[in-house]
Amino acid sequence: xxxxxxxxxxxxxxxxxxxxxxxxxxxxxxxxxxxxxxxxxxxxxxxxxxxxxxxxxxxxxxxxxxxxxxxxxxxxxxxxxxxxxxxxxxxxxxxxxxxxxxxxxxxxxxxxxxxxxxxxxxxxxxxxxxxxxxxxxxxxxxxxxxxxxxxxxxxxxxxxxxxxxxxxxxxxxxxxxxxxxxxxxxxxxxxxxxxxxxxxxxxxxxxxxxxxxxxxxxxxxxxxxxxxxxxxxxxxxxxxxxxxxxxxxxxxxxxxxxxxxxxxxxxxxxxxxxxxxxxxxxxxxxxxxxxxxxxxxxxxxxxxxxxxxxxxxxxxxxxxxxxxxxxxxxxxxxxxxxxxxxxxxxxxxxxxxxxxxxxxxxxxxxxxxxxxxxxxxxxxxxxxxxxxxxxxxxxxxxxxxxxxxxxxxxxxxxxxxxxxxxxxxxxxxxxxxxxxxxxxxxxxxxxxxxxxxxxxxxxxxxxxxxxxxxxxxxxxxxxxxxxx
Length: 484
Known about the structure:
By secondary structure, the protein is an alpha/beta fold. The protein has a domain at 113-364: 3-Layer(aba) Sandwich (Aspartate Aminotransferase, domain 2). The protein is built from 15 helices and 11 strands. Strand 10 (444-448) and strand 11 form a beta hairpin. Helix 13 crosses helix 15 (465-482). The radius of gyration is 25 Å and the shape is globular. 43% of the residues are buried.
């Protein structure tokens, strides 16, 4: 009986033999998926509740064979997938991946590392520090963002988390570390443009600053932040008893890809002793190319900078890089040391504990996939990849400009084209629905100058000019069917 019980206990877990068998099957499934991804409707055609009602009501009492589960992924899960990795996905923002990134992420999952402390896996920490220094060099950052100086980089899950960490560091710097005392946050004010990502407002909510203390600054005709309006608002708030402390400059707003003047905003932040955070989540990857590094002019003023390799740098979600000018300002704002985490390595001061650079304690081994991508493609390969997407986006821009039925709604120096059919908002809404319900491509919308505006963003791994031609053909045919 004892022997039977032991065998039963072992049978609970997947054997290495079975893992190898189904591991090969999963890799084959992923490879087949990419071979056939263009055959799927880009946007899931599922209706609300379709997926949930197709699933078993109750969890299984006994375990099921792995092949049953894999079969159900095809039959039950895939109908509810919108195919972000399709080369005909032009919505929201680039969020691409690649074979090297997937394989490295699989290894990371297999290792199951929690890199909260240097001691919990030295390679997890030291590779991250090294790769972030690589990126700082690749993006031509000021030296103060390098780990051998006072700054450094850390990988967060998303730019939302990165911006929250930056705001907390700025809050503590302004309040000399006393923000958790009563009455020390109510009058802090942060400044963003009306085009800035909503994550900054959410950061203010979470950080205790409050959304009411986030001041929206008017934008110029190109949707970049209006500098005189920023300065005027800062002066007014200071006179009214508020405490200005934080400004977010954006390189590539999500709505229109607008590029704020980091230099002009930086000068104001320097004058009034405000923390300048640069949100380059959308377009930061473009600065891998020297010809787009003009967007970084004034970065010497920045206290923090974030960009997303999981947007447009062939690294699968999630992977957002936060760079800090003075890491002590971030660490002192987030450090807490319960006894169960005390260890000699941390006490020595010779190592980095990245748990002090983020909100959660635990952290994944994300640097492995980023390191693998950079090594596999090299700087040159990544630059060519970005340039290719910009080139074909510019071709789409030229087609729209040459068609008198459509109009361009915002400057388009990179890979996002904002446009609309000349006519009513209803016409453009109907056109968007026609396009996305076709399943052939997927695009999204925004509002610019209070007009319903279509957005086509080029940036998926295998997108080529033929996919953009197909998109333009569908848009034109959709216009003819919906012009009424």
